[in-house]
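Q&A log
Question type: sequence-to-structure
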Amino acid sequence: MTTYTDDIQDTQALKDQHGSTWDAINPEYVARMRAQNRFRTGLDIARYTADIMRRDMAEYDADPSQYTQSLGVWHGFVGQQKLISIKKHLKSTKKRYLYLSGWMVAALRSEFGPLPDQSMHEKTAVPALIEELYTFLRQADARELDLLFTQLDRARAAGDETAVEFIQSQIDNHETHVVPIIADIDAGFGNPEATYLLAKKMIEAGACAIQIENQVSDEKQCGHQDGKVTVPHEDFLAKINAVRYAFLELGIENGVIVARTDSLGAGLTQKLAVSNQPGDLGDRYNSFLDVEEITEAELNDGDVVIRREGRLLRPKRLASNLYQFRPGTGEDRVVLDCITSLRNGADLLWIETEKPHIDQIAGMVDRIREAVPDAKLVYNNSPSFNWTLNFRQQAYDLLEAQGHDVSGYDRGNLMSAEYDDTDLARLADEKIRTFQRDGAARAGIFHHLITLPTYHTAALSTDDLAKGYFGDEGMLAYVRGVQRREIREGIATVRHQNMAGSDIGDNHKEYFAGEAALKAGGKNNTMNQFG
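Response status: OK
Response body:
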């Protein structure tokens, strides 16, 4: 027995109880609709996907080659098509997630219009996008199963029992398009209570993993911009606790918290940490401040000072009323941030770096793992990095260190196309190709994501089409560049009516009205041109 056949039998028993008033109800149609609606609520999704992430984390601990990946998406349709493509080409969604980028919510989903990544957008846009993504992924399930049901009916009509058995097996073992979403809550959009309330909305929408960063909420910056301001650990840990309480209140006991540190590129803090005794967490945070030693006589009205080991230290305060850290302390602050977060409720780490360099990342992770051996990273394979230039420079440095002649290359101009067909460029491209695998093995990276790739692909593909369509190519630009490729490469959107749910709707009409149903998919539907 399977869930599908169980549902048929259960509905038949229920139908028998109601007698002739339920004569129009077909138990198999009910089973089909239930199969197409596997997840009834966002909390069902959060529980299911949290289990997936926890299993994947354990498998990575046992074997670092078992890392996970995601692409950032900004619309439900984009996320849906990504998962359809993964199932089509790679046959399974295993270890492939979605990433919800705060950057793209700000840039593409705010009612204010395009905004910078500074927590200026409506925070309600974040849970709304989570809900939208899962609506589209569930619709992908419904569509795929609907196609299987149609095939099953045809096989039955043809009396092909072998085909019936095979299709029934596909239905019974259907792999859902619903996968974990790692969702960006920025710096929490306010105080810990605000963080808790937003986290609840995100979890109720289906989020099993929430990423939060240690920047100050009202001065939050994109991780790859200047002017980042961090908060003392006590403030950040309160927000981690707020997220955990939100998970627990809603019954998601294995929800995942990703603690992001921006300390590598953040040279400022909004306030000094509270310290009760030498060497405590607050004292260690303050120890990184840029200070000058003064005497009591040098104290001015309004000065803020720290007493340490009998000395008076005056932190350097900027006109913005922010305090600055000593240059060169970024990595030490990152290590302290990460150890502290893991020891206080976080499950995964995110270290925002200024370049994709495995040795740099591994150097920090090695230090973290001295304190927390199973520390794991979510790492941003960011479009803000110039990957070509960075890796060509890394290849240049490697070749030079190995004694190769690099006099034919200008290290400062390696982005130039003149180097594209060189040994150095091929070496760099190979390092880019294996970056995720190598980073997982050497630098503790459990999950590789690209924050805003589909922002760039949407712009690039639109540019290609607009250039041709409004130029000399006219309709050929669309036909050759889009439709012909869709047909030949089996892209499901070529039958866009089906993708939008027209055939599902037709079948429902038949369930509800029988032969009287007015269906859209008849002989005059132009989608029939695509088979």
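Response note: The longest strand covers residues 68-73.
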